Amino acid sequence: MIVKLKFFSEKIFESLFVKFLSEQSKNRIEATILIIAIASFIIHLLIILFVDFGLINLGDSIHLFKNPISAIYTPFSFILVYEVYLLVYYLPKSITVYIGKQYEIVTLILIRRLFKDLGNLQLTSDWFSVKGDLVFTYDLIATLILFFLISVFYNLNPQKDYKGPQKLELSEGTSLFIRMKNWMATLLVPVLVGIAAYSLIEWIDRSFYQTVIPLDKVYRIDAIFFDQFFTILILADVLLLLISFLRTDRFSMVIRNSGFVVSTILIKISFGTEGLLTNVLVIVAVLFGVTILAIQKRYDQLGISS
Predict the structure, then answer these.
(1) What is the domain range of residue 105?
(2) Residue ranges of E strands in 62-103
(3) Which of 82, 189, 199, 236 could form a disulfide with 225, with the two C-beta atoms 3.0–4.6 Å apart?
(4) Is 169 helix (H, G, I), strand (E, B) or coil?
(5) In-domain check, residue 13
(6) What's the start-to-end Cα distance of the chain, in Å?
């Protein structure tokens, strides 16, 4: 009975894995997200047009509907959701690519914020005395630094990691490790969808229906969805660290995976900060991950046994 139940559960997970995370599913989701992104961009522009002509009144609190440049924020949000899906997609294939996708996501969040802030720049001669313009400058510099660090990270990561595990004779521990990564990725997909739906509904409710928001409920729009999702990622990273012992207990790999957990936690913390501190935390998080990977590669090249 137990054997049959185990076989049945594995079949369900395999079916869901193919449905959510196969190459065909990825292509289909990519096409769908692209269509939604284009449609959302057009709708956002139309709302801005209606606001300008006084056909609708959204109040003064919603800055996203005051400048056409801000309309880029909406399709970028859907592109970010697709990047989150890619993060989950690559989880079973490579931990380093999975971590790299986290770094790409936080960089794209910065770029999205740049588009939002472009419509609110004051462009005064006293640039560094205006908080909004100063934050925009911080984001510009942080984006360049992050882009460079991500390129270094992927340069350190062998291209073979993108292909997933090779079809060689695998040990029992490695096979179990791969299966557990597949299960984790499969479970993360409905979690992703659930958090995205909840975040969207909550944003609509707070933006259009609540006239007064309590001080303890004030939130940063750039952290919507990602604050909660990175909390889930921290738990996923800790589980990956624990189940990685099924595959190896090599010191360099343990330190590398532990460093990736620390990096994810720093990114999560950054969503609760503002201004320069946000950028500093994100840059430190990515720099720490890049440095950990570089040291691990060098450590393994030295052939130190542990």
Answers:
(1) 2-301
(2) none
(3) 199
(4) coil
(5) yes
(6) 42
Three-state SS at 272: coil
Is 161 part of a structural domain of the chain? yes
What pLDDT tens digit does each residue of the chain (306 aa) get? 555 555 556 677 778 888 888 888 889 999 999 999 999 999 989 988 888 887 777 665 566 777 787 788 888 888 888 888 998 998 888 888 899 999 999 999 899 888 877 766 766 666 666 677 788 888 999 999 999 999 999 999 765 544 444 544 566 667 777 888 888 888 888 888 888 888 878 777 776 665 554 434 444 666 678 888 888 888 888 888 888 877 777 888 889 999 999 999 999 898 888 888 999 999 999 999 999 999 999 888 887 655
| CA 238/CA 233 separation, integer angstroms | 8
Assigned domain for 211 exists: yes
The position carrying tokens 């570089």 is 294
Q: Which two tokens stand for residue 261?
A: 């957990």
**Overall number of domains in the chain:** 1
Q: Is the dihedral of CA 181, 183, 187, 189 positive or negative?
A: positive
Instruction: Using alpha carbons only, give the angle 76, 113, 193 rounded to the nearest 5 degrees.
Output: 45
